[in-house]
Write a structure and sequence with these properties.
Blueprint (H helix, E strand, L loop, with lengths): L2 H11 L5 H17 L9 H4 L2 H23 L2 H17 L4 H42 L6 H54 L1
Helix pairs in contact: 1-2, 1-4, 4-5, 5-6, 5-7, 6-7
């Protein structure tokens, strides 16, 4: 494979990376080939490896960075990106692709179902909080002190319970996504070790 075909194939495999990381990777290999004095017809695979190997390595490095960012900064967006880039790294390995597509499809279905349940519980928690505040405001229209105290108590219980549900399921969601990241990483490592053993 000559350098132009290599660069074109690598560009296609890395197109999902953020622009800065994509540009850095492409510039590195273009400059590497230029500095090495590679001509148009020379096979570059003995020098750098196959496109799949290089893409897999770059995606692994990026997914590691994204996982570290997710662990330090938290947030659903960072965790989701980490899962996505780990999946891309799995698919970049040629021997992993046929097996990985089935495994990832099943795991993705489970992940969507669990996230839907967690999301619905978060919405339920927010609704309970809203109902609690509604009850607190309704207490102002009560007819006597006993009713006011009862309604205020119910409202405060609802707010507390709703906040606990929201925080609990948010943390559960983060733990679940971290578990999914670790699972996908272990699948990727196993498939890559099989690939290395088969060579």
């Amino acid at each position: 494979m000559n350098k132009n075909t290599f660069i074109a194939e690598l560009s296609r495999k890395l197109r999902r990376l953020p622009k800065d990381d994509f540009d850095d990777a492409m510039i590195y290999y273009v400059e590497y080939f230029a500095e090495a004095g590679i001509d148009e017809n020379q096979d570059v695979i003995p020098m750098v490896g196959t496109v799949d190997e290089v893409a897999s390595k770059i995606l692994d490095e990026y997914s590691e960075k994204q996982i570290e960012k997710a662990e330090t900064e938290g947030g659903a967006k960072n965790h989701t990106r980490a899962v996505w880039y780990v999946i891309l790294g799995i698919f970049a390995a040629p021997i992993a692709f046929p097996i990985a597509i089935a495994i990832v499809a099943v795991l993705f279905s489970i992940m969507v179902a669990v996230i839907a349940v967690i999301f619905s519980m978060l919405v339920a928690g927010v609704s309970v909080v809203a109902a609690g505040f509604g009850a607190i405001f309704a207490a102002f229209w009560a007819e006597n002190v006993a009713q006011i105290l009862f309604i205020l108590g119910c409202g405060l219980v609802c707010v507390s319970l709703g906040v606990m549900i929201v925080l609990g399921f948010y943390k559960l969601g983060e733990l679940f996504i971290r578990g999914i990241i670790k699972l996908f990483r272990s699948i990727g490592k196993k498939n890559k070790s099989k690939e290395g053993g088969a060579q």
